Amino acid sequence: MPPSVPPSTPPSDRRGPSAAAPPAKRAALRRLGEWCARHSVLVIVLWIVALAAVQTANKTVGGEYSDDFSLPGSQAQQGQQVLQAHVPAAAGTSSQVVLHDAQPLTGFAPQVSQAVASLAELPHVLGAQSPLPPAGQPAPPGGPLAADGLTGYITVRFDTNPTLLGDDYLAGVDAAVAPLRASGVQVEYGGPLGELARPAPDDRSSEAIGFAVAIVVLLVGFGSAIAAGLPLVTALFAAVVGLGVLGLIAALSTFATVAPTLATMIGIGVGIDYALFLLTRHRQNLMDGVDPVASAGQAVATSGRAVLVSGCTVIIALSGLSVSGISFMAKLGVAAAVTVVSAVCGALTLLPALMGLIGRRMDRITVGRPIAETGTASEATTGDTTTSEATTGEATTGVWHRYARRVEKRPWWYLIAGVVALGVLAIPLFSIQLGHIGDGADSTDFTDRRAYDLMAEAFGPGSNGPLTTVVDQSAVPAENRPTVQAAVQQALTGLPGAASVGPLQLSPDGVVLFNTVIPASSPQEQATTDLVNHLSDTVLPDSVTGTGAKTYVTGNTAAQVDFLDIVSSRLVLIIAVVVGLAFLIILAVFRGLLVAVKAAVLNLLSIAASYGVLVAVFQWGWGGPALGVAGKVPIESYVPMMMFAIVFGLSMDYEIFLLSRVHEAWLRTGRSQDAVAHALEITARVISCAALIMVSVFAAFIVSDNIVIKMMGLGLAVSVLVDATIVRLLLVPAVMTLLGASAWWTPRFLDRVLPHIDAEGEGEKAEPVGR
After folding, report:
1. pLDDT confidence bin for 604, thresholds 50/70/90
2. What is the pLDDT confidence band of residue 254, given thresholds at 50, 70 and 90?
3. CB count, 10 Å around CB of 755?
4. What share of the chain is helix, strand, coil (3-state, %, to 5)?
5. Quick count: other Cβ atoms within 10 Å of Cβ 168?
6. Does 237 lie in the same domain as 89?
7. Are 469 and 552 in contact, with CB atoms under 8 Å apart?
8. What DSSP character marks residue 634?
9. Across-strand partners of 594?
10. End-to-end alpha carbon distance in the chain
């Protein structure tokens, strides 16, 4: 496979049309950076005003966050619509108000009746069912009152998901059950109502931990207190502005409860990384004697271009989530993209302003040797030089340069070692179990967890995930409906996997049959998912074959199973779309077909390794209890899809940062191995520093009370760590060495079709003072 440029072509002629962006675009970025540096006070004031404005608007008209797993057209949703049309009192979203006392609850009959009546009068409540039987009658077996009479639950049905109703609504629920609590009865909220009662997520401790580690890393890396503070200030400003914008968007559409935390996690991580990439270039310029304003402009025109390309890549990867057709997933992608946009804006405008304001006082307070680029390679090289020093103009004494030379001598050994390491980490992936994490895995500080435990102890674990079967007989002649009812009841008798099956009830209009099935297992167990699928796919349809009746399984647990099935079926599509988009971006930026293939394959391997770690920690239980997770839990159904889009996008940061320097050196010298060593010498310290910061930011969210956030934090931290070490420092140098000049080969027809993107603003050089 021939290289895209013949070896005999002089280095100065190897740039070609793909090596440089149009002059107008380069000049525009340079002018932006210089203008922000020259008018630093104005830019900083504008950012402060923007931050205050969006936060004030968010507190005034910002929206609420809520988890809504409903899917239009799904079986659970269709079943709810049938119930709503024929049995409104049995439709809607149900939640349990769980009661427990050391004395039988029948002794609190007046307070229970008062609470039920008050709950039924609340807005959005379709009905409330008392756990106590009528006076003088025994409690029916399998009913809402336990056999010992100490535990019972009020079933409250809402016409909407209670998590959408806000904290003010919860005050009304608390007032309704106040007489019970005043009498000493323990009252806990289960299901969606329990989620509404949870305190708002407080990520300040996670953010503080992430920032503390980032400060230490930046101080050690930069060796300057002022320089260390600039990426943190930029990332914080950008993240807060982005969260304010997200809150305003949430007023127009419902976002998941994890959306702001996810946006914070991604925004701070990429914000620090982007600022770090620009700042290292700027500091090298200052060391070379360049004027601070000109240096800021050149940093934005070069590394700023890489930030712009990387940010666009992350956003494109996140937009791939919309291919799932699930609004819940697409909105999570939007939430993360909002703070990525604000991080890019902060790096390209606020950071140059801060750099211009500080000027040459960057190293006034030093604590060690700073990180900066190792110098600019000599342009005056010839094609017949044989040593790295002569070819690149770089000293070969650097530790990373020597490391790259060792990789060049035994590339296959390093390649095999890296692949084996990723393969070992990925082994647990083959036993992954997707599902929904039940309330039983949460902390006992939450009312829904306490309600879960009371229900499980008194009624069995399946009582926390009741299923409602629905049979629509609209198309069945009236004379045949009794036969249908008998067939359905017989099919449900002795149902495997069910703890109890309630009697079939007939809607007032005689058209719809419905009943309650209590699984024998907890909602998050695979056995419950199997029961739902068995009911919806086999038991109910077979029982009404040939009659014209339609069957559904609905309820919260059934909706979660439908969500899982749809997410699982579309995960491969998401992977294909995201990989395809990232492949095209790398191909357009570097004009190398094999480089793009390499990036896609290695990123897939690193993500598989991070999935394997998640399975081992949470599903196998190897580290879940240490992280505050009760027992073994499945991998939340949408976490792999979200992780894939985010990680694949974030990995492009380091990919573009490293490969742009390899490509830059290769275009200048035409020597592939020297280009790899030169790029690794320049970027390895910065990539390691940036990755360590991002890992610390993500890992800090493991202390979150939300288990999904724990999963996301650990998964993203492992992904970045693996990507920045095994992939970026082991596999990429080895593969690039093996590929040689053919890495940059592109078929002519592709070169004509693809857009020309300059990732590092090749040709943008700042002039030292006085030149």
Report:
1. confident
2. confident
3. 9
4. 65, 10, 25
5. 7
6. no
7. yes
8. P
9. none
10. 44
* 8 Å CB contact between 419 and 727: no
Instruction: Tell whether 123 and 138 lie within a shared domain.
Output: yes
- Degrees, nearest 5: CA angle 384-387-391: 65
- Of the listed ranges 154-168, 340-354, 475-489, 670-684, the least confidently predicted one is 670-684
Total count of domains within the chain? 3
Under the banding of pLDDT at 50, 70 and 90, the label for residue 41 is very high
154 and 96 part of one domain: yes
Distance of CA 579 to the CA centre of its chain: 17
Q: How confident is the model at residue 380 (pLDDT cuts 50, 70, 90)?
A: very low
Residues near 270 by beta carbon (within 8 Å), at least 6 away in sequence: 310, 311, 314, 339, 340, 343, 650, 653, 694
Q: What is the pLDDT of residues 86-115, one digit of tens each?
A: 988 787 788 899 999 999 998 899 999 999
pLDDT of residue 343: 94
Give 125-137 pLDDT, tens digit per residue.
988 988 988 876 7
Give the whole-angstrom CA distance, residue 472 versus residue 512: 5
Establish if 336 belongs to a structural domain: yes
Domain presence at residue 402: yes
pTM, 2 dp: 0.79
DSSP state of 553: E
Distance, in Å, from the CA atom of 333 to the CA atom of 318, rounded to the nearest integer, reads: 5
- Say which CATH number the domain at 113 has: 3.30.70
Q: Which helix (H) or strand (E) holds 682?
A: helix 672-700
Range of the domain at 733: 11-61+201-434+562-753
User: Is residue 230 domain-shared with residue 359, that is, in the same domain?
Assistant: yes
- Same domain for 355 and 231: yes
Which residues neighbour 269 within 8 Å (Cβ) at sequence distance 6 or greater? 650, 693, 694, 697, 698, 716, 720
Residue 456 lies in a domain: no
Q: What is the Cα–Cα distance from 546 to 542, expressed in whole angstroms? A: 9
- Report pLDDT digits (tens) over 533-561: 999 999 999 999 989 899 999 988 898 88
- Which secondary-structure segment (H or E) carries 503? none
Render pLDDT for 45-70 as a digit per residue (tens, 0 to 9).
Answer: 999 999 999 999 988 888 777 776 66
Show the tokens assigned to 653: 């940061």
Task: Kindly tell me if the per-residue pLDDT of 760 is higher than 70.
Answer: no
Residues 317 and 262 in one domain: yes
68 assigned to some structural domain = no
Q: How many CA atoms lie within 13 A of 232 on its CB side?
A: 21
Residue appearing with tokens 């801060």? 354
Burial 454-466 (b: 16+ CB within 10 A, else e): bbbebbbbbbbbb
Handedness of CA 622, 709, 603, 762 (dihedral sign): negative
* CATH number of domain containing 515: 3.30.70.100
CATH number, domain of 697, equals 1.20.1640.10
| Structural contact between residues 644 and 357, judged by C-beta atoms closer than 8 angstroms | no
Q: Which helix (H) or strand (E) holds 406?
A: helix 399-409
Q: Quickly list H helices, 62-108.
A: 75-86
**Quick one: tokens of 334?**
């939007």
Q: Which of 197, 227, 250 is the last residue of a domain?
A: 197
What is the model's pLDDT at position 757? Answer: 67
Domain end point (choices 554, 582, 598): 554
Q: Are residues 387 and 515 in the same domain?
A: no
Q: Are residues 210 and 189 in the same domain?
A: no
pLDDT tens digit sequence for 313-325 = 888 888 888 887 7
